Amino acid sequence: MPTMGAAMDRVRQRLETRRTLVAEARTLFARHGYAAVSLAQVVGAAAVTKGALYHHFDSKADLFHAVVEQVQQEVGERVSAAADAHDDPWEQLVAGCGAFLAVSRDPDVQRIMLVDGPAVLGWNEWRAMDEASSARHLTEALVTLIEAGVIARRPVEPLAHLLSGAMNEAALWLARSTDPGDLPAVTEELSRLLESLRDHR
């Protein structure tokens, strides 16, 4: 019978193979776009067999799903880090929203999450993944501000969807933009939009 140590080594090897596949696929998808990348290119870059790839992923779309999930998680972490740099809940909201727009200018994020993501995965699947990452942080921030009386009491879910939709649309527009002045302009307009939510009574 295999020893516990040998079994653990196999688990670590499988996890490392999966990490390598996702990392190499991410590089290729970001550089060339989903449609132009073949599984043969991925396994070649990862130095594994196709059998090893199919042990972890059912198809190229399944592999791409894992890559998008990783990118969205990283975007959520960057949004959280920007928000957590502030103590005031309102400043946390503004900083987090600004960070989301800023990270949308990252070429990898643009290609994988904003351009190919909705097209390959379908809007419903892409939106569900977005809600599990960045949108969740937005909802939590709005709940905190409403409970603190900074924003007038209102249903959180429709407000979160409206703001998330506006920022996703702005991020998609920024992904197609080549003007470096567009990000500051969008960020300023977003600040005005958020300011209109404050309860100044």
Automatic annotation (TrEMBL):
Q: Which domain of life is it from?
A: Bacteria
Q: Identify the InterPro entries for this entry.
A: DNA-bd_HTH_TetR-type_CS, Homeodomain-like_sf, HTH-type_TetR-like_transc_reg, HTH_TetR, Rv0078-like_C
Which keywords appear in this protein's UniProt record, sorted alphabetically?
Answer: DNA-binding, Transcription, Transcription regulation
Q: Which Pfam families match?
A: TetR_C_41 (PF21351), TetR_N (PF00440)
* Domain named HTH tetR-type: residues: 15-75
Is the keyword DNA-binding in the record? yes
- DNA-binding region(s) in UniProt: 38-57
Q: Please give the PANTHER family that the UniProt record associates with this protein.
A: HTH-TYPE TRANSCRIPTIONAL REGULATOR BETI, HTH-TYPE TRANSCRIPTIONAL REGULATOR RUTR
Protein name from the UniProt record = TetR/AcrR family transcriptional regulator
Source species, please? Streptosporangium amethystogenes subsp. fukuiense
**Organism ancestry:** Bacteria, Bacillati, Actinomycetota, Actinomycetes, Streptosporangiales
